[in-house]
Design brief:
three-stranded antiparallel beta sheet; alpha+beta; 21% strand; GIY-YIG endonuclease; 5 helices
Length: 101
């Protein structure tokens, strides 16, 4: 991953399941941590580990602001956002491995 990249991401327990919004400076590491249950709390409690959407930002302030906005969104808006780029709710983590993200 290049320096100074920040990511806002959405995880799901399954298609149309429980959703989680997060922000990180290392998407691959964070997605693996969620997948492996290394993140205590909400995602491990509700088995939310499928990376279904993400976007990249150059500034942490922008990423945090976007995360906060998404957390206030209605559930159906989040689902539409996911399905716009990932209609089958595939786990995007395997595609990140070796991608340089």
């Amino acid at each position: 991953m290049r320096g100074h990249d920040y990511f806002v991401y959405l995880l799901a327990s399954k298609p149309h399941g429980t959703l989680y919004v997060g922000v990180t400076n290392d998407l691959l590491r964070r997605a693996v941590e969620h997948r492996d249950g290394q993140v205590p709390g909400f995602t491990s409690k509700y088995d939310v580990k499928r990376l279904v959407w993400f976007e990249q930002h150059g500034r942490i302030e922008d990423a945090i602001a976007r995360e906060k906005r998404l957390k206030r969104w209605r559930r159906d808006w989040k689902i539409a956002l996911i399905e716009e780029g990932n209609p089958h709710w595939h786990d995007l983590l395997p595609g990140l491995i070796g991608s340089g993200v």
